[in-house]
Amino acid sequence: MLREWFTHRSTPASEEARRLGYLKECVAIQARHRRCALAWRDHLERSRRFVLWAAANTPGQDKVTVLGSGGLLDVPLDDLADDFAEVVLVDIVQPPAVKKWAGQYENVRLVEADVTEMAEDLLSGELPERPPTPSLPDGDADLVVSLNLLGQLPLIPAKHLPKGWSRDRRATYCAEIQRQHLRALQAAPGRICLITETKREWLEDETVNETEPALADIKLPEPDETWIWELAPAPEIEKHQDLRLQIAAYAGLFGR
Ligand SMILES: C[S@@+](CC[C@H](N)C(=O)[O-])C[C@H]1O[C@@H](n2cnc3c(N)ncnc32)[C@H](O)[C@@H]1O
Asked: How far apart are CA 200 and CA 212, in angstroms?
């Protein structure tokens, strides 16, 4: 707890990231990874391997952009920096350890950006009627990777939507944030690799008690690969329940 508090205090972040809770979430993810490293290992390895497979099938090797790079747990940075002339890592928070790691490569660049373009509006409380279609930072890459991000995108905005909104209106707005991310990916000219949670499952004694969709009613095509992320084995969040995520991975979404 003390370590998390100190990290939170000492990590530079934009006012939006700090006040909306993105920084807190980033510190919490790193802490959860330390506690659940063994349970996360398979998911992180599979994510890194899948990104490399997508990279190997990308015709151009000038630039790769990774959206949701975070703590680089699921990013095969060494290989990407070897394979591509330029690697761009995009996240709303860029932790100091990532800055240090990225600083070792001449061809790796960090971009601190909100890929939904909603942070300022959420902070001011003046929301547009519908979430904007964002222009992806460095979206002009040969390969754009949306990395374990899509399912997470509405979670923090959902906490800042007007209190008076009905449950349905909130759910519709959150789903539209995800749709807009997919539209932004579709508008990018290069190859698109998407790795995303599709469902959250709560289990007790290996029996699924409850399933929550992570992508509302968004229909994606058949994935190239699927696996499970053992996100929070008991008692990490619930004393007697495990939380796991169903993951779907696409090497060339939109048929590119
Ligand atoms: C589940 S984590 C992905 C794991 C991450 N690649 C890692 O290795 O730590 C989701 C990442 O998405 C980032 N993120 C969430 N919402 C974002 C937004 N609106 N813009 C940019 N990044 C965002 C978070 O900061 C976090 O690093």
From this structure: 5
